[in-house]
Amino acid sequence: MPDSQESDRHVKPFVYESLSTKALHFSIGEIQSRMQIQDPHALDLEYTRTMMGFLMFEPEPRNIAMIGLGGGSLAKFCYRHLPDSRIQVVEINPHVIALRDEFHVPPDDERFSVVQGDGAQFVRYRATRCDVLMVDGFDSDGQPSRLSSQRFYDDCFEMLQPDGIMVVNLHSGHPRYEIFVDRIRRSFNDSVLVIDGVDLTNGIVFASKGHAFDSHRPARARGPKRLDEVAARQLHAGFARVSSALEGRRR
Question: Which H or E element spans position 171?
């Protein structure tokens, strides 16, 4: 269980369960994560499927870092379908981590770990670089300022390998949404793709440290060769959104 002093600093989420789904909430009006009870490893929310569009540019990442666990949808999907990847998840809220079994998040092993920590500190004092950095860190107040500052995105850039990809989930209705996107553009020298309106309120931003968006070819937009048919079907619409954003960037 979470340490009492540490847990007092964080809002405790709750789980809402229907006949077919289980969802993680901080408030009843906003879903943080949702899982299909009959298929707990599937990506149920469209924004998570879109975030997996990084596979179009980095189909076989060796190291994936994630900021924000939530219900573990992205972590579970990557663990199951990218067996050669090492995955480290950083989550600041101990109450969220305490619910990992409820959402079928796999136990830590030699290639998967969930650690409690501040994502901003994690990228600033990085112990190693990663091929893919996924930022999906929200708290009970929404978009944390420490995960959307210019310094944070600069540190994210430095944490990536030379051809690494960052993908960020932002709330497109946030009053500073355009400012956050502009900060990512500055940190990544405008090597950015923006996909608005996913699940109505999510803006998904892809940023490349190298030239992945310039060298991309449609024939490469298939992800890992070993991705099974069921998983590939889940990602098809997300890949199409990314392809459309790429075409728009070239115009």
Answer: strand 160-171
pLDDT of residue 189: 96
Q: Which one, of 85, 97, 172, 194, lies nearest residue 131 by Cα?
A: 85
Tens of pLDDT, residue by residue over 142-197, are 788 999 999 999 999 999 999 999 999 999 888 999 999 999 999 999 999 999 98
Looking at 3.40.50.970, 3.40.50.150, 3.40.50.300, 3.40.50.2300, the CATH number of the domain 40-250 comes to 3.40.50.150
Q: Give dist(CA 65, CA 7) in Å, integer.
A: 24
Q: What residue spans of 24-131 are helical by DSSP H?
A: 46-51, 73-81, 94-98, 119-124
User: Which residues are annotated as catalytic?
Assistant: 136
pTM over 0.85: yes
The residue extents of the domains of the chain are 40-250
Q: How many residues does the chain have?
A: 251
> Does the CA dihedral 166-190-205-97 come out positive or negative?
positive
Confidence of residue 4 (pLDDT cuts 50, 70, 90): low
Supply the pLDDT for residue 57. Answer: 93
Of residues 241, 237, 153, the one with CA closest to residue 203: 241
CA dist., res. 5 & res. 46, Å (int): 36
Q: Report the SS3 class of residue 53.
A: helix
